[in-house]
Amino acid sequence: MMYLAWRTLRYRRLAFMATFVAVFFGVALIVACGGLMETGVRMAVPPQRLAAADVVVSGKQTYGVPNKDPQDTKNIKSVPLAERYWIDPALVSKIQGVPGVERAVAESSFAATVVRDGAPVIVGTTSLGHSWESAELGPYKLDGKPPTRAGQVVLDRAVARLARVGIGDRVDVVAGGTTSSFQVTGIADPPGEMSQSALFFSGDDERRLNPHAGSADAIGVLAKPGTDVEALRGRIEQTLADRKLVVLTGDDRGAAEFPAAIGGQAQLIPLAGVFAGMTVFVAIFVIASTLGLSVQQRQKEIALLRSIGATPRQIRTMVRREALVVAVGAAILGCVPGVFLGPLLYHLVSEAGVISPVVTFHQGFIPYLAAPAIGIFAALVAAYVAGRRPSKTRPTAGIAEATLQRKWVSWPRVVLSLLFFAGGFALILVTAIVMEGAVASATAGPAVMCWAISIALISPGLTRLLAAVLSPPVRAFFGLAGYLGTINVRTRAVRVAAAVTPIMLAVALAVANFYLQTTQNEAAERYYSDNLRADVVLSSTTGGFPADTVEAIRSAPGVEAASAYVTSAGWINKPYDGSHVESPWPLQGVSGASAASITGVQTVAGNLGDLTGDTVALPEVAGKNLNVGVGDQITLRLGDRSAVDLRVVALYPAKEGFETILLPADLLAAHSTTGLSRQILVTAAPGTDRDALAANLREKVADHPGTMIEGREAITTFAERTKTLAWVNYLLVALVAGYTMIAVANTLIVATAGRRQELGMQRLIGATRRQSLLMLSVEAGMVAVIGVVLGTIASIATLMPFSIVVLGRPVPSGPFWIYLAVVGGATLLAFAATLLPGRRVMLVRPAEAAVAVE
């Protein structure tokens, strides 16, 4: 059988090349997904500003939320903190006494930005100020003198070059929301390329400018020469014995500098897992479709082998070995593009903001082992499915059915189709009845998979049914070519279904996932920002606004109300709240004096004007679930892990699944990483021109460099994270849809090329090339229409309940051109993959084509 397998590969190169391409691209995508997954698991963040520290002590940037029982300290969910968790700098003396420690240095950072001609000078993602004492943790090499008293600053080399200043010059720096002039006493050279701008101040200035003075971001530990770093790490952990602290070495040290990188892990791992699962699912279908068509075209050959004594087991072995030979080569070679595709995907994902670009991309040997194994396994599964029926068919029946296969129904196929249909229906019910808000996508996504599998399993029958529906209008419009085309599609329904299935799959996955995301985006934008009224939004690019800026804005002509605006995330600790275990509550901070005007919220109890000091306004549903009302007290765990006791002053209605908790802006800002409010929301007085209002505001913030004046679309909400993930999901879905389109091309090219005899006979009895191409066009059009219709049905069944849940209407949100683009792409590919090989086949003389090997 191995000899026959090799001979088959030699004479049926096109069919097996299609299988090769399917496995090749599938393995490449899986390798890339494996790299993303491994990167998320390792989370290696090489240190930059702390590169000289052998060990770094930092606050744990995660918080353990009890899953069910608040007293159960073991069954907890670890969730990233929204803000930096600061630690006590007094720990320096404690660490200093650990054997093997040469020196321990506290590192503190705060927003500080050089401005030149009113514009911020930033190299990298942000600009931070530090005490000069922490510069040795770099280590930075100083050209000049360190800052020894107030009013002096040392700039890193990149900032000094961009700001065009040197030693002895004076420079304006925005820190703590105010602008001050400093004398440059030195230029510091970093040890390598930095992702953030660094400014170094004297100890007095650091304590004056830092909103979180008296706390530390991290403590860098310099070990004595010859000290075992891992052993030192263990001794420090034992000395501190605090579960809220982490002791870091190696590439983990950078997490102390870039706490936001920790939050990216929770997004990257599931993202890579879902994409990999989708790729594997599509790969199995693509390979099975391609290989199945190849086996169908050889049914006469297989029947002849059976008639001369080949057993069913030998036939299955031959098909399996053919698939194995092709899959092994394709799987090995598929790893090559994976080497480049993985870093490319990671770059795009990091650029989109899903994960910090400071995280090192890792793609070790595991993806290169797992991906080929999955590709080969998919090919073997496809070979088993494709070879099972022909091997069991009686030789005489196989020869009769070889030219025109009609039988496709089997009990396993029907049962599996019903099971997946039931699964899809159950997921729809769960989406419509149980799920709320954005989490509805957790069940809506898998639902389209179930629908697609169910339809694919019975696609020959559905193809024949839809072909019968399309036949009358097609025949009426296209005449003889329409008659021949419809007859071919209906009588070859089993083989045509092999081309319909990947089109259905591509349309279903692309349309469902694209519109799930656009619908979720609109819902998040609507419900997170609808409770905020702002005609003009002021945004700071230099760290934030001081508290008195809001009062100055309120006095500007044309201003009806103004409020500081802060966003964060946290948890309700007491009474116990089990509704936000997987993700924290969105927190919005507004100024109590203008809260009612800025939010436009109509409270059902209490008054938003009382939102000052240690108070909170809760969504009505949260008050009912927690059994608290106006005047009651709750304990809220804020984004920096601080627990604050707050008095409930108002309850207000909110869309389920998109609720937010309202807090005083100054309270929430004090527990944010910057310590300041980054935005101010302004509503215009009746009859005020927006441009005139913007001009008045520009005068009020003239002494706040880096202030942007924009419309309400600039309001920062929790929809921003949804938008970030949306862009990445669009990319990943496009890749999978593109891979599925390759299957469409493979299947149609192989199917058309395998009809040389038929097309040759047509031309021998008088058909012209134009007539034959028109017939093929009719067939391609029907294949495209049937695939699009079935894919649309699968996507609609998923999108309608999801849209009802999140938008309150059955029609999803999103531009219609997305659907047209998907349908147009599938249709264009169907025609190209049919007509181009068909045209090439007809270049052969009719007599030669009529006797060619199928």
* Beta-strand residue fraction: 15-25%
Overall outline: elongated
Please tally the helical runs, counting DSSP H or I stretches of 4 or more residues: 26
Oligomer designation: single chain
* Unreliable residue stretches: none
Helical/strand content category: alpha+beta
Specify the biggest β-sheet: 10 strands, mixed
Total separate domains: 4
Number of strands: 24
- Distance between the first and last residues' Cα: 21 Å
Alpha-carbon Rg, integer: 33 Å
Helix content: 40-55%
User: Which whole number gives the mean pLDDT?
Assistant: 82
Walk me through what this model shows:
This protein is an alpha+beta fold and 854 residues long. 54% of the residues lie in helices and 17% in strands. Strands 15, 16, 17, 18, 19, 20, 21, 22, 23 and 24 form a 10-stranded mixed sheet that branches. It has a 6-stranded mixed beta barrel with strand order 5-7-12-9-11-10. Strands 4-13-1-14 form a 4-stranded antiparallel sheet. Residues 274-393, 731-842 form the ABC3 transporter permease C-terminal domain.
In short:
With 854 residues, the chain is of the alpha+beta class. It is built from 26 helices and 24 strands. The chain has four domains: 1-45 and 258-402, no CATH class; 55-73 and 82-256, no CATH class; 404-531 and 717-854, no CATH class; 533-716, no CATH class.
